Amino acid sequence: MKRIFTTLSQKWPEYLLEILVITVGILGAFALNNWNEERKEDQLKNRLFKELHSRIRSDTLHFINTLEDNEKAGASARFLKDIIKNNEPYSEGLDTALAQLRMLKSPESDYVAFDRLNNVGIEIIDNDSLKNEIIHYYQDSRRFVTFDDHLHDQLDKLYPKYFTRKWGVHKAKPEDFETLKRVNEFTIILDDVDRLTNVLRDRTNHRRVLAMLILRLIEEESTLNFSIEKTPYKKVMKNDSIILERIR
Question: At the top level of its lineage, which domain of life is listed (predicted)?
Fold first, then answer.
């Protein structure tokens, strides 16, 4: 027994060193694995941020085109309403206005990046403000998915019945303009286009500035290099998520 204790006492420093080396190795492996997982998550997050930034940036350009198209549709509707009110005769110049009524469209977003983010798990975004604004932005967009469908359906029914030919949004030639002026469906469409132009102008402007805000938040959160102009943002509807007088 004494010999055993003597042997243990002699070997103990060696055993302790082995235990220490094994423990350090295990902890090091855990640390390396955690570092690798964090690095992979950061790379994935940056890829998602990059795609979100690109898609939302494209949205802002789409919103500019939407504003321009809606203004043309609204101006055409008001012009035609005045023609009917004053009982003016048909002229070829009306063909463009009659076709541009269908230019009215909603400020929808491209959902590709957001769908990918949801597949990965939106909780990958640690910044709650950014996460909430992204959710709000895309939820707001889905409100407009079928917003203009009814109007387009009505126009699609009207054109074959009362027009001899239509060239996209460039020209639509009525078969008998005097008859068309008395068609109730037509006057209702003109009123709807005029009204919706104002609604969509406000919402499109709001969504464009909200998009710019999200781009700014992505820039601040991501390690990627982005550049974006400072844009004023104001809350325009009571269900909007934040109030900022200026993005700083």
Answer: Bacteria
